[in-house]
Design goal:
The protein is of the alpha/beta class. 28% of the residues lie in helices and 36% in strands. The protein folds into two domains: 179 residues, Rossmann fold, CATH 3.40.50.150; 57 residues, N-terminal domain of TfIIb (Single Sheet). The protein has seven helices and eleven strands.
């Protein structure tokens, strides 16, 4: 089953503890550090628009790209008919913009949905192509350590009054692919509707990200542990990477 279809209807409820405000502040601080205080910014993997709207509220003109029309429908519903955010339903491996942007951002481990290194390079090449001269690319990713050692082979369940889920996680060390099957139970009237989605993500090392950045024509600027804001270590679970446009 395609990911983020039925899941879109309850995504925000299950992600309510995500520290979007903290992540947004971090992105804005990084952008301002490179002299970007406004202008066009594109978010890859915009989902239901939680980060997109926050960045818009910080003064950026936002474009949100996601491959799930269901997720984007939720994003558009939040904005109503007078939205000043342009949402585009596109696969990030093939995304197209009308021109260049000051920055591209991607959060919430969206980059981990790119399962092949060659496709990772393709995405990064597109980013480089659509960035203004010396434009900035900020993204995060989950490490192999997180998928292998922290989540691993596990089952997670949560029971709420109107919706519940069972998350079964599997990690293949040979391919570095993390698979999780989520079964949802969502109240509809007196009954609960059950549906299941399967998601595949790949764990990466920082060295692999650096190699893909170099192969794409971007220039690696820096990386840091998303939780500690310090140096990336073997125990880092989520890493923030900053790269810069370097010619077309």
């Amino acid at each position: 089953m395609e990911a983020y279809t039925d899941f879109a209807s309850v995504y925000d409820e299950f992600m309510e503890d995500t520290p979007y405000d903290e992540w947004c502040a971090d992105i804005v601080d990084n952008l301002r550090g490179f002299g970007i205080t406004g202008g066009l910014v594109c978010e890859l993997g915009a989902g239901t628009g939680e980060m997109t709207r926050r960045l818009r509220d910080k003064g950026f003109d936002m474009i949100g790209i996601d491959s799930s029309e269901e997720m984007l429908m939720k994003a558009r519903e939040k904005e109503g008919d007078s939205s000043d955010i342009l949402y585009l339903c596109q696969d990030m491996r093939e995304f197209e913009l009308y021109g260049t942007v000051a920055a591209v951002v991607s959060v919430c481990d969206c980059i981990n949905y790119i399962l092949e290194e060659s496709e990772l390079v393709t995405v990064f090449k597109l980013v480089n192509n659509y960035l203004d001269p010396s434009g900035i690319f900020i993204f995060d990713f989950n490490t192999k350590h997180k998928y292998r050692d922290v989540i691993g082979e596990s089952t997670i369940a949560e029971n709420r009054e109107d919706e519940s889920f069972i998350w079964e996680n599997f990690y293949d060390e040979e391919s570095d692919i993390n698979e999780y099957d989520i079964t949802f139970f969502v109240r509809e009237g007196e009954l609960f509707r059950r549906f299941t989605e399967t998601h595949l993500q790949r764990g990466y090392e920082l060295s692999e990200m650096k190699a893909a950045i170099e192969a794409s024509g971007l220039v690696f600027v820096k990386a840091y542990d998303a939780d500690t804001k310090g140096e990336v270590t073997d125990d880092s679970e989520r890493v923030v990477v900053i790269a810069r446009e370097c010619g077309k």
